[in-house]
Amino acid sequence: MKIAGKNAVVTGAGSGIGRGIALALARAGANVVVADIEQSKAKATADEVAGLGVQSGHFSLDVRDAKQVAALADYAWGRLGRVDILCNNAGVCAPGPVLDTSDEDFRWQFEVNAGGVFNGMREFVRRFVVQGGPAWVVNTASHNAIGAPVKGVAAYVGSKHAVLGLTDAFRTEHGDAVGFSVLCPGIINTGIWDAGRNRPAELGGSFKGDARNAQALTTFGMRPERVGEIVAKGIENEDFFIWTHPQDIELVEKRYREGSEAIARQWPNGADEEQMMTPHDVT
Questions:
Q1: Per-domain residue ranges for the chain?
Q2: Catalytic residue numbers, as ranges
């Protein structure tokens, strides 16, 4: 889908990948509403977007709250007239050994990473269908949606698998009217390891991120602006999967190999009569 002249909404766009996406879409000619839980950062990115010669707006948003997501949609349609692109990018991570994961850490990551994506898709896809015309949704998952190349992020990995599943389910039901992409970034130079600064009180309150993880992202991570360029190209190519690191083909191949080899061992002669899609007599 062509981006020039379109109107976009990007969540979690006050910094990191979301900011990179917002700026890339603006450079491609889209007007962009920037949403973030930190309003000052949302405004800063929106000002950068406006500086690129397109319309912008900013909105304070906790993606866990469906009512706030609906209010964001009202704001975006009111400000821009219509919306054509939604990027559900807001995400958090609370690293730690899997057996030490607290109920609050688990809930927080799933409510933001998976629940936020669901809230965004449900609200915006409903409006896209009514509105008509081309529309596109990009959901930020992770290469962890395909495999788990590192330890210590179990709830995060699970939530990103959920993003992939939700996106595929929405595509199955509404892919005839709306396009969908899943962004699967690898190591990116973002502040996600310090996302705990925004964890709400009811889920344990704020916490300080691990400086070692932050240093690793800074040293080895791809620039978020580059990720934004990759996302813009993925939308224009109408790709379902958008990858930032081609070496993640290893994760894809490992997942396929494990599945196909297990099927070959368990069913060496193929499906038997009981597995065939035929009606059975009910007695």
A1: 7-250
A2: 156
